[in-house]
Every structure is written in structure tokens, then in C-alpha cells.
Amino acid sequence: MTELVPGQVLSFEEALGQLEALVGQLEAGHLSLAEAVTGYERGMGLAAYCTDLLGSAELRIRQVEALVEEATAREGDEAEDEYDLAAEVGRLLG
């Protein structure tokens, strides 16, 4: 993910809050053309950043779901080694 501001790392909630504030400023119509264009560029960057974060979260959720399905399938097969689902989920969420 490209940094929106050098050295700045935002949580999803922070980025979304900034995006909502920018949209409000643009909708109010009190910005100069240069400020509106800069705000629009920043807003598009924030929207892309939020989309990336949501995509990453969705991938992690799918991985956890797959682990749970695998563990459930293994549950009836006592011949296999013990499966440590909690450790694997912790590793993914880590």
C-alpha cells in the first residue's frame, strides 16, 4: 500500500474518518479549486487505502474459516496428529 502521507500509517477507522471529513468539505463547496483538487486526490488515495485494508481483512477471515473447516473435518479422525487450531489462528491474526 502506498503511503498517503510520508511516515504516516493509518488504521481503517482513521482513514475512513479522514475520507468522511474530506467528503464533507468538498460537498460544502467552500474550497478553492486547488484545495478541492488536492482534497479529491487525497480522498481517492484514502478510498483505495480503505479498500486494500478491507481486502486484507477479508482474506484473513477466509483463511480462518478454511482452518476451522479443516479442523472440523479432522475432528473425527483420531489417527492424525493433534491439530492446534488456536495456534494457527493466532499465527494468521498475529
Structure characterization notes:
This protein is mainly α and 94 residues long. The chain has one domain. It has helices at 12-28, 33-74, 85-93. Helix 1 (12-28) runs antiparallel to helix 2 and helix 2 (33-74) packs antiparallel against helix 3. The longest helix has 42 residues, at 33-74. The radius of gyration is 21 Å and the shape is rod-shaped.
What distinguishing features does this structure have?
72% helix; single chain; 3 helices; 94 residues
Computed over alpha carbons, the radius of gyration is 21 Å
Order of helices and strands: HHH
Counting structural domains, the number is 1
The largest β sheet comes out as: none
Contiguous low-pLDDT stretches (5 residues minimum) are none
Strand composition percent: under 5%
Total helical elements:
3
Helix content: over 70%
- Described by the principal axes of the CA atoms, the overall outline is rod-shaped
- Could you give the distance between the termini? 19 Å
Strand element count: 0
- Give me the secondary-structure category: mainly alpha
Average predicted local confidence, pLDDT? 83
Architecture blueprint of SSEs:
Layout: H1 12-28, H2 33-74, H3 85-93
Helix pairs in contact: 1-2, 2-3
